[in-house]
Amino acid sequence: MAGAIGREFVITRGASALLGLRDVSIEKTAGEINITTGEDSGWQLLLNASSERSITVSFSGISKDSVIRDLVMAGTEVLLLTDVVLTYPIYVTGNTTAATLSGNFRLSGITDTGPYNDAATFDAVLMSSGAMVYTIEAA
Q1: Is residue 71 included in any domain, yes or no?
Q2: Does the pLDDT at position 2 exceed 60?
Q3: Which of 14, 87, 128, 131 could bridge 55 with an S-S bond, Cβ 3.0-4.6 Å?
């Protein structure tokens, strides 16, 4: 049975992996274009094209360094990250091949949480800016 382990998902910026990741989710959207008119008898009709495509990456983890927070606090000019690569495994009939998604992302924010008697954690969101490149590496 094929499956994937969430901890094998890696987000890198330049040559450095973001530390402390525990949960990562990727949302891919392709906005629809509604072309319904009165002639469609009340049934929705969608154009076979997207109005806009986007990828949103939400991630959280244990705070092990201040890299992400420092990016947000440094000022708006550094919130567009041009060297982000998302790497995760794809399982294909017994073979594991890595896949990457790369492009420009805007770091839209971070939430730091510091419970009184537990590990400090963070939640952050990256939003795609421009075209993305999806590559499946040969097995």
Answers
A1: yes
A2: no
A3: 128
Which residues neighbour 38 within 8 Å (Cβ) at sequence distance 6 or greater?
A: none
Q: Could you list the residue range(s) of the whole structural domain that residue 120 is in? A: 6-136
This prediction's pTM: 0.78
More confident residue, 71 or 22: 22
Do the domain assignments include residue 46? yes
The C-alpha atoms of residue 86 and residue 9 are separated, in whole angstroms, by: 7
Whether 30 maps to a domain, the answer reads yes
CATH code for position 100 = 2.30.110
Alpha carbon distances (Å) from 55 to 20, 78, 92, 133: 22, 19, 23, 11
Which among 55, 69, 70 has a CA at the least distance from the CA of 127? 55
Tell which residue, 134, 127, 135, 122, has the closest CA to residue 59: 122
Q: How many domains does the chain fold into?
A: 1
Distances 23 to 47, 57, 136 between C-alpha atoms, Å: 35, 10, 22
